[in-house]
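pinging the channel bc i need a second pair of eyes. not urgent but kinda urgent?? the chain im working w is below, pasted from the shared doc
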Amino acid sequence: MPGVYISYPFCAQKCTYCNFASGVFPAELEPKYQAKLREEIQKTAWPWVPQTIYLGGGTPSLWPVDDLALTLATIPGHSVAGQLWQEATIECAPGTLSPAKLAAWRAAGLNRISLGVQSFVETELRRTGRKHTAETVAQDVALLRAAGFANFNLDLIVGLAGQTRGSWEHSLASTLALRPPHISIYLLDVDEDSRLGAEVLLNGQRYGARDIPSDADQADFFEWAIGQLAAAGYVHYEISNFALPGAESRHNLKYWELEEYLGFGADAHSQAHGQRWQNAESPADYVQEGEARREAEPANHARERFWVGLRLLGGIAYAGEFPEVVQPLLDDGLLELEHARLRLSRRGLLLANEVFARFLPDV
């Protein structure tokens, strides 16, 4: 069954590396946003009961628990014969959890937590705008386990300003010591839509822009982490994601396997019925437009299955499509073909964006 994504774009502060349509907004906007969000969900024709729910942001762990529960109660399958959705995830900032909040989330149907740790090194965290500490993360993990959240993820970022091989080894070792079922490791995304990215592109120095590790160092950090995680029993199932057996993110797999999903809220995307669409990007525009959506052309699955499906380490079934693109990538050692399965090579993992760009139309 398809999945549901719900956007909560509100944050206590904007991280320097963040390029999402989220941030600090006027307090009076939030109740209007929540009313529009529930209206959009309630007006949806549901041909199926969703299998997975994902609350992203923003910082959904700041969502007032009563309002969050009210929103979740509008989604089909909130309780079917006493059974909740198979997987219902909420993204959280360290330091925003409490026993009461976790109990309320479980009662509302949430059963998976994604904790945005990013680093266990305080100097790196401060340059991103994050306020938590390593101790905060350890306390939060203890709270999760005590509250019965056995399924949770810790996020890390490779390439933060000031990060060294030693500090990266410390962050990964600290993560493994907590033994989360799932770990995500993202390479720093440098683009003009974040304060840090814009500063890097301008060759500035604010936010530690000149202290970002080189591409070669980031590749070294990431490759080293792959080996450490494999030795610790984690399965590398998607470029940025590692899980203990059976703990893969069911919701995110829907994106990579091109399954259907519906998105609600500001900047939320949807893919269903052979088409895809996107809501207004800013919360203010979303509130004004309500459920109005910008329709797009049907997805080009023939090409898209390559730049989405190849994110998975298992690759995709290959029957000889686009040989003019695939063969040069095989020759360059960026792709591998075995038993009619096409997948990224170890080198291709580090140059994945270059691989995916080859499959874009008119490239």
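so The chain has a mean pLDDT of 89. and The chain is about 35% helix and 20% strand. — does that match what u expected or am i reading it wrong
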